[in-house]
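Continuing the series of single-chain predictions for the mutant panel. This is the parent chain; the variants come on the following pages.
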Amino acid sequence: MGLRDATIDRERRDLVTHQVMDESRLIRFVAAPDGSVAPDLARKLPGRGLWVAADRASLETAVRKNLFSRAAKAPLKPAADLADRVESLLVRRCLELLGLARREGVLISGFEKSAAAIRSGKAAWIVEAADGSADGRGKLLSLAKHQQPPPKVCGAFTADDLSLALGLENAIHAVLLEGGRADRWTFEVERLAGFRPLLPPEWGAEPAEDPDKDLSGRSSAP
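Parent structure:
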């Protein structure tokens, strides 16, 4: 049973909006012995869970209004930078999962291998370095449009982040193949999306890649 299957139909109440939602859309916190509020991203720490929607605005509201104390019915002191800490933890979890995927052979890296993986129709995610070349990225994203449904795209990490996580030099392009590891990564990266954009805003200013160009950059149009 995959992680997403294991959590299906398990719902909790967001302590900010009081809305009941699936656990996959929430972050669990617990009261620490010193009265602080500890993130429990793996949902394994003992104690009563304090659940907040997985986005920065909700968590900052919970901290500012100290809604944790109200929910726990005990005096708690959440750190002012709790949202930043959660983002950092989510980033680390996402990168660690990419490293595991590479060791398991379900993450393909490099431009040509990534292109071949996309052509196979089995790409779940295209992972591009935020600071990588727009040219190479545009070619892969153009190629991905032919897959149905197209793979999702993540550009939330720098080349240095990806290189360290994957144990490679200058990691720019990667493809995560469909399967259980991709499902687990989707769960984590979709929570991260509430704290940082998965697609850098500057990518929206890039010119669209010519769909008539082949991967060498030459136009195949008459």
